[in-house]
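[job 4471] stage=fold_predict status=RUNNING
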Amino acid sequence: MYQTLTNRLRDALARHIHEKYGVDLAIVLERPPKIEMGEAASPVCFELAKRLKRAPRQIAQEIANGLGRIEGVARVEVAGGGYLNAFFDRRGFWEALRQAEGKEPAGMPALGTEKIIVEHTSINPNKAAHIGHVRNSVLGDTMVRILRHAGNRVQIQNYIDNTGVQVGDVVIGLLQMEKVTPVWVKNRAMEPKFDYYCWDLYAKATNFFAEDKARAEKLRGTTLRSNSLRSAGARKRNPAPAFLGCGVRNAKEVRRNSIGNQREDGRLLDHAFETGGTGGKGSKGG
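[job 4471] inference complete, writing structure tokens
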């Protein structure tokens, strides 16, 4: 819409200058530094002044007075030493934009039966949320809006994927490296930047596994398998989900406005502490 109005303004200026001064010029349009100065500005009068040997502001005043009505442009004013500043009809602009959004785009297919799934962001809650997750949310949401505007049926999936190997590595780091208890995890999770603590622990666990791949395979297998073998009736109440909850809270902040499917269960970490977390040192400091 903005491009449409600037094209109209450019054409009107070129036509008026040709008719009044007999000069053909390429009309340059710029965006003023402040919205109070209008939506578009042209320095064409400075170039015209060189050819006509006249003051640019005087020429600009003549053009502003004689330009006539341009659809979508409320007025044209003289600014500075000879700029022509155009102020768009803002009410008309937004009304036209709303009307255009209410219509099906020309040439676009009707809503189909096939569904397009867009998965984006999917923040992993075992690390701190950062600006990159916000960027992914913006990109993903933009893609969804474009596809829907094109007439597609779109479903958003934003997984809080907390039952994978990465979280398992942090669980192993807590149990085997830090040797902490569920109580300590719950208390530490209430302190600031627990997500950063888990992020650092994940990095240390990665190095820990690299030292002995056989050990890594065994620990990962035991931790992940224990979750799949656990029965629902054997679940005990314990504070272990505090670890996961911190990351999930951060993830929710990132995807607050995303609508889709999320996985937010803490079963892996729950069971890991039930089966292996009672022998740690409760006095561990953070």
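[job 4471] summary: The CA atoms of residues 89 and 191 lie 53 Å apart.
[job 4471] exit 0
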